[in-house]
Amino acid sequence: MKSFTTTLFVCTIALLAGPACAWVIPKQLRHAAAAAAIAGAVATTPLVADAVSFSDKYSGFYNDPKHPGCERLITASGASASISLRDGTPGCNKGEKTKKYKVVGEIAGDKITVDFSGKGGPRNIEGSWTGDGIQWADGNKWSKL
After folding, report:
1. pTM of the complete model
2. Residue 32 is inside which H or E element, if any?
3. Positive or negative, the Cα torsion across 132, 138, 139, 140?
4. Rounded to an integer, what distance in angstroms lies between the CA atom of residue 80 and that of residue 119?
């Protein structure tokens, strides 16, 4: 049974079209498996495309009105986000002493959840993509530059 399962798996990977698999798998089963594989690929394609398009939208530099002139850079890939920050007191425009931070987040559709606890902020704050930036749950809005 194990060798049949292994052969079935190998034939499935080979898209079940090759004549070498014909002796192992009946024609109807080959066609049904191929249809299921195609349907699965088609069904997941929009999800992958959405993850990529939203990570592209989130990636970039932002203006944070609560920290004027301070770096806010999001580097997103798929559902993961890395945010590089520089904070001053209160901003970074007038030669204030600054400190660098790096925090992480997760992207799910048009939402991003970030753990700012490493810099003394909230642990899991949610933000929403607005078309020109991120509206955070605490009322702050980062505008994309």
Report:
1. 0.64
2. helix 27-58
3. negative
4. 19
